[in-house]
Amino acid sequence: MQRDLLVSGYFRVDTEGVSGGNVPILRLFDRAGARIVNLRRQNLSGDRVWIEYGGVNTSTPGRLPLGTWRRFELHLKIGGPGADTIESSLDGVQLIRTTTATLGTDGITAVQIGNETKKQAFSLVADDVVIRAH
Fold first, then answer.
1. Is 119 exposed, middle or buried (CB count within 10 Å of its CB: 0-12, 13-18, 19+)?
2. Residue 96 pLDDT > 90
3. Is 80 exceeded by the pLDDT of residue 110?
4. Rounded to a whole number, what is the largest CA-CA distance in the chain?
5. Among 57, 69, 63, 61, which Cα is nearest to 129's?
6. d(Cα 89, Cα 67) in Å, to the nearest integer?
7. Of 115, 130, 103, 132, nearest to 26 (Cα)?
8. What is the pTM of this model?
9. What is the distance between the alpha carbons of residues 67 and 80, in angstroms, rounded to a whole number?
10. Bridge partners of 28?
11. Are 74 and 6 in contact (CB under 8 A)?
12. Strands 48-53 and 110-113, bridge-based pairing
């Protein structure tokens, strides 16, 4: 279980699914298997990158065009309810930063590239992924 974790890597989406779906880039889970954070690319929405956490679903200024390599960083720090930190960047440009999130108390036990949900069509490629506890 980690309370301070940085995940970085290069990601490329080659194909997307239907409208209303998405391509999960990074998902982080607690020890109970609950999803803490979901960094994703929304299908058929101008290449937009979204982040979901603690019941919040936020569009970011980030874009990930099909067939294009981009470097993402996602840093989570569990500090307690209302005091958790989420920072994410795309090619060094900040997508989101909050120090008032609530991500639970269990910490982070799993990092996933892609999806655990069936029947969600897409093609995602990852390279040079680094997971580092602080």
1. exposed
2. yes
3. yes
4. 39
5. 69
6. 19
7. 115
8. 0.93
9. 39
10. 37, 111
11. yes
12. unpaired
Answer yes or no: is pLDDT of 105 > 90. Answer: no
State how far the Cα of 58 lies from the Cα of 70, in Å rounded to an integer.
19
Q: Band the pLDDT of 130: cuts 50, 70, 90.
A: very high
Q: What integer pLDDT is reported at residue 17 of this predicted model?
A: 87
pLDDT at 15: 93
The mean pLDDT of 67-71, rounded to a whole number, is 98
Closest by CA position to 89, among listed 132, 39, 55: 39
Task: Report the pLDDT averaged over residues 58-75.
Answer: 97
**Which pLDDT score, from 0 to 100, does residue 106 have?**
87
Task: Give the separation between CA 65 and CA 9, rounded to whole angstroms.
Answer: 16
DSSP secondary-structure letter at 35?
Answer: E
Which residue type does 102 have?
A: T
CA distance 27 to 74: 10
CA distance 77 to 70: 23
